[in-house]
Fold this protein.
Amino acid sequence: MVATDLTAPAGAPRGAGLPVIGGGGDASGLADMLQQFIEQTVADSPRKLQRARALRGRALFCSAEDERVRVCIDFAGDHIEVRDVLDELTQVPTVTADFLTVAHLTSGHESPFALLARRKLKARCSAGQALFLLRMLRFLQLESEARRTEWLQRICWAALALGAAGVAAWYVS
Amino acid sequence: MSVIYSEAWYEDMKRLINGSDQLGKLAPKVRIAFTLEVMGDGLSPYVPAGGGLYFLLVIEDGKVVEFRPLGERHDGKGLNFRFTAPATIWEAVAAGTEDPIKCGLRGTIKVRGDMKFLMENADAVKLAIDLYGHQGNTDWPLGRPPYQPRA
């Protein structure tokens, strides 16, 4: 289903209980679209709202089509800020992808792991930031797809735990 | 060849989009209504500076059922998307000299609407704008982009 109302002025808050702050009229298109996407996501899903409140950290989204377009998403708990970045940001986990890849990721047409493996999605982060980056990418996936990814991850973890328990049992015996 | 923004041009565009089998398969089956807002920027000879041209497009079941100019800006009721850009940008896209995706990412084309839907149907959107940008069937009686600044 596609939402059918554009009567509110651009940038008007949607009353989700979690402000998503953007750069206004001066924002790049990527920043503007990501801001609208996140705002609509948390407004439409209490589960996503809860997840967004639990996330803490920053990530940089870089456009593969235009290296000047770089957007930082800052999850602060009580708000999210989406802004263009002009300076070099170090120590911030970074994702670089083209528009279609971002769309395929958020819509769940492709998993982040598959996109990373095919180098369609390039990620740069420290080991400590990897979990945040993964949680953020999962937050950005549409509800149904995020759930599927989550279930797959749970199954993988369960299989891993079972395997480890089996190996431990075999070793002890 | 049809003159840009003429009645024949809208019909050509409609035929072009409806003639694409690939788009017919990729496009969502729901009804989507959106406007293209072409804002006069003082460079385009087709849109007066400070003025604007507004087009309504309705796609249903993967086919364009309506493509017509509006007398004024749409109030937004029942609208799914609004694409706004200076005339120079729209015309450069139609002439195939600007990449609409890059324009969208930079923000020279402003997009308002249901972003979740846009992301889910990005392949169809990309195909539609590629058709628009590579049709090569537009006549430019007052000159084609890129335009030189007017004195």
User: Anything to note?
Assistant: The interface with chain B takes residues 1-8, 10, 27-33, 36-37, 40-41, 44, 63, 65-66, 68-69, 99-100, 102-104, 106-107, 142 of chain A (CB under 8 Å). The helical segments of chain A are 29-44, 46-54, 99-107, 112-117, 127-140, 143-172. The first strand of chain A starts at residue 20 and ends at 21. The two ends of chain A are 57 Å apart (CA to CA).
